[in-house]
């Protein structure tokens, strides 16, 4: 099963996150299937590939709670956020 979740990047106290599609059994820093977005919590910047996220959700990918919250703040359609 594929999950959309955050992958940590950057150094201590300066982290950023990438939103990635990854196998659910893999660890956080494991091999990524596809990168679909970027999130910077310090500046509240979010960059999303909406078409890729929608395609992954339609094919059965699950969202973690944190990613679901980020997509909600980005005002993505509710159907994408609830398909998991």
Automatic annotation (TrEMBL):
Similarity comment: Belongs to the bacterial ribosomal protein bS16 family.
Keyword Oxidoreductase included in the entry's annotation: no
Predominant location category: plastid
Protein name in UniProt: Small ribosomal subunit protein bS16c
GO molecular function, one term: structural constituent of ribosome
Organism taxonomic ancestry: Eukaryota, Viridiplantae, Streptophyta, Embryophyta, Tracheophyta
Keyword Transmembrane: no
Subcellular location: Plastid, Chloroplast
UniProt entry keywords in alphabetical sequence: Chloroplast, Plastid, Ribonucleoprotein, Ribosomal protein
One record GO biological process: mitochondrial translation
Cellular component GO terms, alphabetical: chloroplast; mitochondrion; small ribosomal subunit
Pfam families named among the record's database cross-references: Ribosomal_S16
């Amino acid at each position: 099963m594929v999950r959309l979740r955050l992958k940590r990047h950057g150094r201590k106290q300066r982290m950023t996150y990438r939103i990635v599609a990854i196998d659910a059994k893999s660890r956080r820093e494991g091999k990524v299937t596809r990168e679909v977005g970027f999130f910077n919590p310090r500046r509240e910047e979010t960059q999303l590939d909406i078409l890729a996220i929608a395609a992954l959700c339609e094919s059965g990918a699950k969202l973690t709670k944190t990613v679901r919250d980020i997509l909600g703040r980005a005002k993505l359609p509710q159907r994408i956020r609830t398909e998991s």
